[in-house]
Write a structure and sequence with these properties.
The chain has helices at residues 2-8, 51-68, 87-95, 97-114, 163-174, 198-212, 216-221, 227-234, 268-276, and strands spanning 13-17, 30-34, 38-47, 75-80, 119-124, 132-138, 149-150, 183-190, 239-244, 254-258. By secondary structure, the chain is an alpha/beta fold. The chain folds into 2 domains: 2-50 and 161-276, no CATH class; 54-150, no CATH class. A hairpin with a 3-residue loop joins β2 (30-34) and β3.
């Protein structure tokens, strides 16, 4: 629901959900009216974290939930020295979860009287080849001693080197929902730590490479009658937005790619807003 929220922040825009219904032929999620006259469609696709990243997040949540219940004047951090995540790493962490929790509990009990205020101490978690470090800290003015605070830490990143495939598959999946004769935009939103704006360009580049190689079989496998059938559908796709919750070096959260071959181009005022729209939460 973030996308209609962002659209409605501009009083020039109004939003209607599934205006074209939900019959046999799927239609875009939202139809947007600009200045009470120009209509265009938005279809939203969420790019999720890799399954190994999801498993790591669940593992971390279990650890934090258990440790936070321990009464202490301490806080703790968990740093993965192995920054590149693998299935082996996740499986090992899951297997050792109970032992890791017990180790942290014992360390907190021992550190409560030993660690001075304003100081911190690092501890290597055993049986993990020095890959996981627990840091215990005693803040100078921690007032709530009914629980152990969690201060975050360094998490592994589960790159597959195939991140752009998900975006490419989203394009293939959503093309049939584009309405002929209108501006249609697909918004790929992502809170994945491995998907970045460059993956949108890589996805489009890989599709163009398959067209150049005349790989008819690939497009048939994706549900089209061949390359020309695929290209006829792309004429209804005016643009793609990759919207990430991650922002670096001051770059905008939204990357808008405009399809120059589309029959209906995105008007400049709408293009500008879609590129810049940003949430302003209370």
């Amino acid at each position: 629901m973030e996308i209609p929220y962002l659209l409605l922040l501009d009083n020039r825009l109004s939003v209607e959900y599934e205006k074209f219904g939900t019959g046999k032929r799927r239609s875009p999620d939202f139809t947007v009216t600009f200045e009470d006259s120009f209509e265009f469609n938005i279809e939203v696709k969420r790019i999720r974290e890799h399954i190994f990243g999801q498993r790591y997040a669940e593992w971390l949540k279990n650890i934090v939930d258990k440790i936070r219940k321990i009464p202490s004047s301490l806080g703790f951090s968990l740093d993965m020295v192995a920054a590149d995540g693998t299935e082996e790493l996740v499986s090992t962490l899951e297997k050792e979860q109970s032992e890791i929790i017990q180790f942290i509990k014992r360390t907190i009990t021992a550190g409560e009287s030993k660690i001075q205020r304003g100081c911190s101490v690092d501890y290597e978690v055993p049986n993990l080849d020095r890959r996981l470090i627990v840091t215990l800290s005693k803040p100078p003015r921690k007032t709530n001693s009914k629980k152990t605070s969690y201060y975050g830490g360094i998490e592994p990143i589960f790159y597959t080197q195939k991140e752009h495939f998900k975006i490419g598959d989203s394009i293939f999946e959503k093309l049939a929902q584009m309405i002929p004769g209108m501006v249609n935009v697909v918004v790929c939103t992502s809170n994945s730590s491995t998907h970045e704006r460059e993956d949108l360009y890589d996805a489009i580049g890989s599709i163009n490479a398959l067209i150049s190689k005349n790989d008819e079989e690939f497009f048939i496998q994706k549900g089209f009658n061949g390359i020309q059938d695929f290209l006829s559908y792309t004429k209804n796709l005016s643009g793609i937005i990759f919207r990430s919750t991650w922002s670096d070096q001051g770059r905008a959260l939204n990357l808008l790619w405009c399809n120059k071959q589309a029959e209906n181009q995105i008007p400049e005022p709408i293009r500008k807003y879609l590129s810049e729209m940003t949430a302003v939460y209370p």
